[in-house]
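tool=predict chain=A
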Amino acid sequence: YAARIATVFQEIEQATHEFLRSSQHVRLMVRVPPSLANSWLVPHLAGFIRRHPNIEIQILTDQGSAGKLADCDIRYGQSKWPGMNAELLWTERLYPMVGPQGPVIREIADLVDAPLIHTRSRLHGWPELLSVHGLAKHGQKTGLEFDRSVLALEAAASGLGVALESRLIARRLIESGSLSMPLADVSIEDEAYYFVTGQTELSAAAALFKVWLLEHLPV
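tool=predict ok
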């Protein structure tokens, strides 16, 4: 499947690149969730700029005005945006994460007695993960709770408990050693990221950006 669609991507990119070369500069406005922009998109954006120096990219994170569509959006959810075209980019998985000074987690049963950190904005959380593995925890919905993933991760890195979060969003903290995933084979599927546009035809710059995104999806 990958081999078959790779040829299509190459043809799209080549045709779009030839079109853009005739233009001096093209502006591309992209709206992205703040956590994704900070943890993944911005650190990788240099590659896109080197490949397409004539595209002036503008990143917006004001999700409150998401109704005003940019050239394209990257949205997190369940593909329920009436009047919009939504193409799946990747589905998120959540993993238990803990800091060096946090509780010791060697096996999944250790989570029953550990202080758990909750992220309110997530569709799924600790109750679902524990239930999947046949575990129950008294008051499992109690404890520290945050409305943002970045805050839950910082709390875990500070030793306040175990967060159930995205490996993508936690990338920098994991690479720095501030967080670890002691149960790397334990996870639960959450919502997904989608490439969202209006009903109008995709612009040449947005098409190139989508191709670049699909080439650099996290594994």
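The chain has six helices and eight strands. Residues 31 and 66 are 8 Å apart (CA to CA).
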